[in-house]
UniProtKB/TrEMBL annotation:
Domain (Methyltransferase type): residue spans on this chain: 49-138
Molecular function in Gene Ontology: methyltransferase activity
Gene3D superfamilies for the chain: Vaccinia Virus protein VP39 (3.40.50.150)
InterPro entries: Methyltransf_11, Methyltransf_Superfamily, SAM-dependent_MTases_sf
UniProt-listed GO biological process terms: methylation
Biological source species: Shinella lacus
Protein's name according to its UniProt entry: Methyltransferase domain-containing protein
Superkingdom, natural source: Bacteria
Pfam families on file: Methyltransf_11 (PF08241)
Keywords assigned by UniProt, alphabetized: Methyltransferase, Transferase
Length: 236
């Protein structure tokens, strides 16, 4: 059983090594989808919480839509984030025990956090508790179907929880608390087999921008994306 301190140590190191100086293609695409969904919402005066914000890299983009608080276990990383982006409020600690008032937020964003929590049902229920009626959860998580079958992923490191879900498991987690408006896969990636060729950069370059975009769209619709993304609304 991974302790909270083990998890904090792992994520401080992982975020410092992987997110402070660069943002991956996968993360950039997740941010693009989330901001696209937010662009469809009326108003720019929202109370927004990002759960598991890592280095805080996405919070400045979210600030275009309102007031932003970012939370993460990575206390060392968040201290640097607060100095870098003083207009965002960062809070380090365990999201499950943070003393936010019920119905405090219009939007909660969570990118690739769900698979790293021990109790996923409680995690989703806590998010629903903190959202106002009609509020939005914008969530990204690893696509179990793709990562477990078509990708080469090292085993979890000490302090790293891993519990990937497929689209049906994700839908089942969300449905008790939310109306699921969108559930899509994005960023087709594969490291082995024929999908390695079909989802590879070389084929995409050969197809050219227009055809390559159409082909990526087809792969995403077939659930070949690394990421599953959900837009879910709390009932009023």
């Amino acid at each position: 059983m991974e302790t909270l301190e083990n998890q904090r140590t792992f994520w401080n190191t992982w975020n410092a090594d992987n997110r402070e100086d660069r943002i991956s293609e996968v993360s950039r695409r997740q941010a693009e989808v989330v901001t696209g969904w937010l662009d469809e919402q009326p108003g720019r005066n929202l109370d927004i919480l990002e759960v598991g914000c890592g280095t805080g890299w996405f919070c400045p983009q979210l600030s275009r839509y309102g007031r932003v608080i970012g939370t993460d276990l990575s206390d060392d990383v968040l201290r640097r984030a607060q100095a870098r982006w003083p207009g965002v409020g960062f809070i380090a600690g365990d999201f499950a025990t943070m003393p936010f008032a019920d119905a405090s937020f219009d939007v909660i964003v969570s990118l690739e956090v769900l698979s790293h929590v021990a109790d996923q049902e409680a995690f989703v229920a806590r998010i629903a508790q903190l959202l106002r009626p009609g509020g939005l959860l914008l969530l990204a998580t690893q696509n179990r179907t793709v990562l477990s079958t078509h990708c080469k992923i090292p085993p979890p490191a000490p302090g790293q929880l891993r519990n990937w879900v497929d689209r049906w498991q994700l839908d089942a987690l969300l449905r008790p608390h939310f109306n699921v408006e969108n559930l899509v896969s994005v960023t087709p990636i594969a490291h082995k087999g024929v999908r390695h060729i079909l989802a590879g950069r070389r084929l995409n370059a050969l197809l050219g921008p227009a055809v390559g975009h159409a082909w990526r769209t087809i792969m995403e619709r077939r659930d070949w994306g690394w990421t599953l993304m959900a837009r879910a609304r709390k009932p009023k």
